[in-house]
Amino acid sequence: MLAIYKRELKSYFTSMIGPIFIAVAVIFTGIYFMVYNLNAGYQYFSYALGSTLFIYILLVPILTMRSLSEERRSKTDQLLLTSPITVNQMILGKYLSMVTVFAITCLIFCMCPVIVTFGGSGHLVSDYAGIFIFFVCGCVFIAIGMLISALTESPVIAAVGTLGVLLLLYFMSSLTGYIPTTAMGSFVGCLILLVLLCLILYFFTKNWIISGGISALGIVACVILYLIKPDVFENLLPGVLEKLSFTTSLDTVMYTFVFDFSGLFYYLSVIFVLIFLTVQVVQKRRWS
Amino acid sequence: MIEVRNLVKRYGDHVAVDHLSFQVEDGQIYGFLGPNGAGKSTTMNIMTGYIGATEGEVLIDGHDILSEPEEAKKCIGYLPELPPLYMDMMVEEYLRFVSEVKQIEKSKRKECVQKSMEMTGLLPVAGRMIRNLSKGYKQRVGLAQAIMGMPKIIILDEPTVGLDPKQIIEIRDLIRSLAKEHTVILSSHILSEVSEVCDHIMIISHGKLAASDTPENLIKMMDASHMLDLRIKGTEEQIHEVIDAMEDVTSVTMKPSEEENVMAVSLNVKENTDIREALFFGFAKANCPILMMTSSRVSLEDVFMELTADDEKARKEREAAEQEEDYAKEFTDAAGKEEMPGEFVDINEDLSAEFMEDTKKEEQ
Predict the structure, then answer these.
(1) Going by fewer Cβ within 10 Å, which terminus of chain B is more open, N or C?
(2) Which residue of A has its CA nearest to B70?
(3) How far apart are CA B248 and CA B268, in angstroms?
(4) Residues of chain A contacting B82 with CB distance shorter than 8 Å
(5) Could you report the predicted ipTM of this complex, rounded to two decimals?
(6) Residue A90: which of A200, A28, A173, A5 has the closest Cα?
(7) How many CA atoms within 13 Å lie on the side-chain side of A109?
């Protein structure tokens, strides 16, 4: 794992992706820092940092696009998969190297709260907590990008795909406002989701019995529940989506200065699931 | 020691490897021989654990490649069809990375990198970017990667592709020197290469093992019908008179040669008979001097063609039938797609093999 980690990290800095990622991130955060904290006189750096999140939605795909797709395209995965290291080690090494590049930018941001204190009263604890949760959120983005990179052989498709998914997550909390909150609306939404699940399962397993069976069970359960207790569906879908929204817990920490532990665990568990899925995608390809 | 038992690999409806079983003993050079798309690379990919088989098992030194991948993979060095190189690394840096990935002990890494560079002649380019190397040098880096840490079993998928004739000879010598301590398995569709380097040949055709023996035995197997080529000074009638008197001759073909009054004659002779003396005295009596007499032996090429020909015919018939049945299906047929560029490469290979043989003759 260490060998892959070192190689990946080095390649990020020889291929210029690493320096460009860090430079663009630091420049834009610096601009926001200047506008919010230095000029407008806000005491919290987390205001500035929270506003730069969309920059990372553009930058993270560039960082992650090549991670696994390039290995496949240049057939270097043959070396890694035929050497005595496990797929877990390979994926973890790659993931940690990308996280390290991102961590470097976050370390640079750690200077900003200190600079704020020079100009008056700063809020070091809440600012550092903000930087920390921002870092963990970025790690989720990287895990999403890595999974999409594992699904394709083309870095460009990986980048565009990651950008799409990240944008959707970014807008999710505002989009949930447009979903009908009635029981009927959520019921129909659940049925649509179950059909989608059926199609996704079929795509991966190529087995109509498993995918159709699971979805049919879900649909039957939904219908029964809706007939017996329709108020369960009241505001169900918007509520769940609101809870799952990526930016909610980030905003809580950034703008209300309350450290959201449930949000932190949500991020960590999502990272775990995404890495697990990435390993499964790489393993599955060897068998198809 | 490698044991392959009942290996099957299916891609949808296409069967790439079809119930393949064989054993590889230690300290020998094995050659995988087969036309394009025969399943050589697929078999090698399964043996090294890169892809999984649909059925069957592979045991490397007693370790199953699937249930004990770490132990099994430690015994193998693998050079795939396309060398797995990181273009943005320098040669020495890349090999150091390989030594780490292959979990060679820290104290031995430097020595191992040095040794593999020495053996493949990479020392002059140690500090160069792999991207900027020529194809031959890239192939050598791939080879250095495969022999890194001197694994017991070295598997090479077409190791001499893209090399110039001199490099091919160097690599062959290297492979021969490796065989003293290691088991080497190499695949190729160049017959001369396989017959020259390998102790044992496995001919694979359509995912099945068509033959498995030493090159000598394979040729012997085909050597049943004897052929004689002659150059005889005389008229057609005179020659026919002499030959017709011989009982052991089964067929005769005759045509005038470049020289005046000289006929080129080729004879098919019955098994286990030697009629050379009889021919000599017969033509001496008829006052027709024999200018040349050679017995033409079967080459490995003929063996190969013979073993793969039937399958080829059957496949062509099948493909023609499929085309009639459903014309559109042809486009989606993965096997068909692979065939096209493959054939093109094949021509190049044969040319390079010929070129190499020519230069070798010049050297001699």
Answers:
(1) C
(2) A84
(3) 9
(4) 75
(5) 0.85
(6) A5
(7) 33
